[in-house]
Amino acid sequence: MARAPAKKRAPKSAAKPKVAAARHAVSRLQRSKAPKKAPAKSKKTSIAPATNTQRRALPRAVGMDAGKTGRRLTAIPTNAAAINTQIRKYGKNVVARSRYLALNNPYAAMAKEEYVSALVGSGIKPSPLIKDSAIREELSRVWRLSTDEMDADGLSDLYGMQATIASEMFEAGECFVRFRSRLSTDGLIVPMQLQLLPSEMLDTGHNEVLPNGGRIECGIEFSPIGQRVAYWFYKQHPGEYDVSAAVSVSGQKTRVPAEQVMHLFRPVRAGQIRGIPHTLAGMVTLAMLDLYDDAELERKRVAALFGAFVTRQPGSDEENPFASTATDDVDGSTDFSLEPGAVVDLAAGQDIKFAEPADVGATYEPFQYRALLRAAAGFGTTYAGMTGDLRMTSYGSIRAGLVGFRRRIEAQQHHVMIFQFCRLVWRLWFDTAVLNVAFKTFAALDYVADPLKYRDVKWITPKWEWIDPLKDRQAEKLAVDAGFKSRSDVIEAEGYDPEEVDGRIKADQDRAAGLGISFIQLSSSIVVAPDDGEGFGTDQTDVAPAAPGVTNE
């Protein structure tokens, strides 16, 4: 009987992978179904530090460089102190240093004059807008006469007081004006005057909380809702020397109601209650430059003294016939001072050595120029106006610089001088004049019924002078002829009252007609071509061909 053939067995190497894979699958399934054990509390898991490769893979944090505290910005403070806190802490020192520079530094003094002349000039004057010509003429006449009597100190008229206020604002950043009511028997046209008080008269260190819920901050009293109630002024300037110790009022203060005080300053931050000097940003630069100039001037002075010194050996009796011997003191020391061309005979064994600092040479002018540019920018004035240096100035460049300066000054004219001073003075003067029957063309009852009708006024700022008046005249005339501008706007821009100008023109024409005088008036104007920027003024090449029938001769 034949045996059945035996089955071939699969090799072990082929069965093992399948069995192993199945066992691993079962094991994973069991582990996933089994409940997980909570890790022991005593054990702590540690995270291995990231490798360099992992660090490079992380995204880099993006932030504001100006807010970081790296090495480059350590000199710039990061505290957010309020502006009033800084005024309380540094205000006195800043004002004292600003006044010193404005008085002793020639550049600061010139910058102040430039600022004052641009801000107020010969005065910011009112132009009444009431339609009744008789009332308007009387208002202008009474105001013109009253301005000569408004200064309580009797030193200037109202427009001179405006210049003093502008000077105080430049040096100290603020000025106080107190309204002083006078008696009708004092002989004034309108019984009122104004008293100017400097910044130092209001103590920045006077700060307290009042029982009624209000507060006094930097010398200004506020109500519980933040309104200005009063000002606590010194009775005597804190820097004034006592004239008489027996009647001295040094340190004493008086409370003045807020409705009697005008506080003029330019607020540069929200919530600011006191002014800061206009010199603040450029003060350090100009002060350091002043010290540098003094040192350089002294170095040049010593270098120009070409002195000669003669030394002798000990025991020598030889005299120097052409030298002045230094004076000997009792203790044997010799004192002398350098003088131009001096020849000093030194004692035996004496010698003199001088320091030899390096000459600044060609770097002095560029350094001075950049430093003064920086200071002028901090003072808010132009470089040419502060220094008088017009060497590198052309017609186009100086006019472009004056345009920006003019815009800044015009903003302060309307936001500070007119709003904080002129407007309030006009209202106080009008009310006082009506109560004292200073006007004859209308009654007090008419004014009380509609005060805005009578007080409506437009303030005329000083005229701006340009480099080439001919070109500006032609430009204004073209604008008026084309209907882009009125004659009144042109006249007011020059600092005059249009109705007063027209009245004087009419009076001149009537007088000339009565005398039989006639004047030649051209029927067309000269058209001026734009300046090429190479020079000032207008030459023959700038004049376009004349209109038909008119010669340029």
Pick out its properties.
3-stranded antiparallel sheet; 5-stranded antiparallel sheet; 553 residues
Give the helices and strands, then pairings.
Layout: H1 12-33, H2 52-57, H3 83-104, H4 106-119, E1 125-128, H5 133-146, H6 158-172, E2 174-181, E3 192-197, E4 208-209, E5 215-217, E6 220-222, E7 228-234, E8 253-257, E9 261-265, H7 280-303, E10 308-310, E11 324-325, E12 327-328, E13 334-335, E14 343-345, H8 364-379, H9 383-387, H10 395-435, H11 444-449, H12 451-455, E15 457-460, H13 469-481, H14 487-493, H15 498-515
Helix pairs in contact: 3-4, 3-7, 4-6, 7-8
Describe this structure in words.
It is a single chain. A 5-stranded antiparallel β-sheet has the order 4-5-6-7-8, with no helix packed on it. A 3-stranded antiparallel β-sheet has the order 3-2-9. The protein contains 15 helices and 15 strands. The chain starts with 11 loop residues before the first helix and ends in a 38-residue tail after the last helix. It is of the alpha+beta class.
